[in-house]
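User: Can you fold this complex?
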Amino acid sequence: MGRFQGRQLNEILRIAGLTVRFGPVTALDRLDLAVRRGEFFVLLGGSGSGKTTLLRAIGGFVTPDAGSITLDGGDLAHVPPHRRPVNTVFQSGALFPHLSVAANIGFGPRQRGMARSAIATRVDELLALVRLQGYGKRRPHELSGGQQQRVALARGLAAEPSLLLLDEPLSALDRGLRAETAAELVRLQRQLGTTFIQVTHDQQEALTMADRIGVMRMGRMAQVGTPPEIYERPVDRFVAEFMGVGNLWDAIVRPDGVTVDLPGVGATLLLAARVAPGPIVFGVRAERIRMRSTDAAAVAALTTTGSTIPDQNIPGLNQLVGELENTVYAGDTLLHSVRMRNGIVARVAEPAHDQPLSPAPVALAFSPAACMVLPP
Amino acid sequence: MTTARILTLALSWVWLALFAIAPLLIILVIALAVPADSVPPFHFATDPDNFTTAATDELYRAAFWLSLRTAAISTALCLLFGYPMALAIARAPERWRGALLLALMLPFWTGFLMRINAWIGMLRDDGWINAALTFLGVAQTRLLYTDTALYIGMVYTYLPFMVLPVYARLAKLDVTLLEAAADLGATPFRAFLRVTLPLSLPGIAAGVALVFIPCVGEYVIPELLGGPGAQLIGRVMWEEFFENRDWPMASSLAWLLLMLLVVLPVCIRAAFRSRLR
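Assistant: Here's the predicted assembly.
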């Protein structure tokens, strides 16, 4: 069993200029990526972003048209899948239905010529690791979805790969089980120190599990960073939208570099830090906006609560007014649509409460620290 | 049960009773009769001697044994040629598969006897195959009325019955399983042995049964293509029936063969079951 190896920063995998085409479709477009040893890296992207193709290229199931994949300093270009020190946990699990759980887990070590008794010991270790002791003799179809996924994970880890690839390992599980299995995966990864690369389309999953996230778009890496970096400082409109930034408005930074004009609204918004003047995309998350009806007392109360002002050096809150058009009940939150004077709809999310809301003028307030400035 | 269901079930039972159970019972009655010089050529009786003779006589035992051996070899040959064909069709691009399956079944558009007769034309001493061999400088070879011709005919006729069930199984096989095997370090050959082959066993079992059973009782192919030594049970029965006019003997042979063919598949299935479960 691999010891905890610490969070070394050296690189295990380097991908340079990787291009994969399927006929007229370019699935990966001159993609560059470096993955560090021992990290939990999550590839995040929508369908068709190329994330699964990238995973399959690392596993050896897709032949690149150009570019290189280097693992531990060795070029993988002409190494067939069965000789790569990389294992995959497939989306469906892909357990061998005719083999027992133990034989599934022992498949990799057996192919690599491990002695029969050593395989049995290794299988027991892994069953304990994924908390399935005593399940060795069962067939995959006798297990629940979550248990099957854990067997697939154990099978992937059995041959001690340098790199474990996970293709949407949680997508087949129902919601409660998904959170539990996600925590289990992270625990295992920390315990073993094996480098994990996981593919997902679920931003929540990426944020909670990853050491670093790579957001993919149209076969390229749109942004690579830690979860807070990706969440708080998306580099462009696409990443911001993908990470659920509800409000993205075209705006112009004034020559002073700290105030922003929203054309047609007439309001001036304050930024937390100085940026270059000119046209920008202004972003603010729906859940960072507070909404109150527009009587003066309420606005005054709002500005003095302080709880929405994370940084006391900022003199005030940004305020906008509009007409509440529509409210959608989403369980723990209410999602409001507020039409502003320029016709743009601002989205506001607030904790659900039982005050009835009717179409009426409202005031929106958010702190300058919540503002994002993205390239136009 | 609704009336419609009763009617549907009744229909299939009537069909079975008329065309399967009744003929079998008639043959059983004849098997227990004694031969006579009359029309029909037997007198009703309950004489089990025919069965004893059929099971113990050297001639019949040799015929049964030869039939089983010929069927086993034919089935093995069908598997040997049929499995790669099934695999090739299953792995062919989707748009090719229909055409390949059609090609496999195309011979059925022509009558069975016509096709066997066509083989006579090809296998004859002055036939197409020998003409080609002579052209290539190989000495003329006796093919027709030998075991070679017999097996060519058997494999030619029954190959589709092996290919189709194996193909049906292989086409359903999830290719991700092969990727998983490769991912875990299995070479393509080992992935075949450990994944593809075991998962296609039910298809192989079906194919073996579909080829082996009709091969045991095959009459036309050994008669038209095989040599005089190829005294398979089908031929022996024919002789008893039409040449010796010993209907009771022929009938007891038929019943014995039926028992053999019912018991054998049950054994084969049990063997496969225990390996799969």
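The interface with chain A takes residues 174, 176-177, 179-188, 190-191, 194-195, 198-199, 276 of chain B (CB under 8 Å). The domain at 57-276 of chain B is CATH 1.10.3720.10 (MetI-like fold).
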